[in-house]
Structure prediction request, 316 residues.
Amino acid sequence: MLTAYKTLESRLQEVTWDPLSKGVWVKLVNPTPEEIIQISATAQIPEHFFRFAVDEDDSPRIILGKKCILVIINVPVSHSDDRYETSPLSIILTPELTITISESRIQVLPDSNKGSRFLFDTTKRTQFFFQILYHADTVFLKFIRHIRQRTDEIEFCLRKSTNNQEVFQLLDLEKGLTYFTAALRGNVIVAETILRMRSDPQMRYLLEMHEEDEDVLESVIIENKRALELAQTYSDIMSSMMDAFSSVINNNLNQIMKFLASVTIILAIPTLISSFWSMTLKVPWQGTEIGYWLVLMFALITSGTVGIILRRKGML
Prediction:
């Protein structure tokens, strides 16, 4: 699906795609072969760039062409409250256009300028490109904070749990942090490579950078490293929590088994006493009404005494 946007009246607006227009952001989601051929011909982009762009297994990197640059980064994707993954987002920069390509719908930019510290201007290609990178880092940080909140909620439930549901939820969150860590490492390399490219005279016509553009790029690198550090820290914490809570679940289960064993002992005492007085041999008070009450009182007192002893020993 092809959608074109352009900054008009200080805000992003959807426009009709015109191959001759400049300063336009072309957003491709799961592009068809016809759309790829059309964009490749009009923007003079090699078709193999698009093959790299839609490769889900491709790692973050930069590919240079004669009249364009392909930048591949990873962005976070949330499937549920506990399932997080990363998906490649490809950005092609030409002297006239900014093209983003993804296999699925990805929020490339915030819904509005209110949620961002920058104003989006598609005519300023380099700055707009850096803003896309910056937004990806902010989404990483947002999801990492949400993972931390979910971890605290699951931790509260795990303190009294004896099943594996919460452990599986923690496992999904830990897996998501692992994906985030690997993706952010690649994104850091991409951002630092762009920082080195700014001094290359041959790339200035594609990455024309002004002072405010450098400020945005520095913010990208800072947020990227910050997100990477948080993801690594929370991943280490969660690994320790997984081991600890596995022991907690086993301990909770042992407490339940200990309680049931104690109850079994207490219930076995009246059974044992009544079995003695129900034998066919001669026993005291046999055939008398008072015998029944004496045996019953003796069984209850004995069971109560054993229960108190077990309680003091922490068995109940």
In short: Helices lie at 33-43, 47-53, 125-158, 165-197, 211-277, 289-312. The first helix runs from residue 33 to 43.
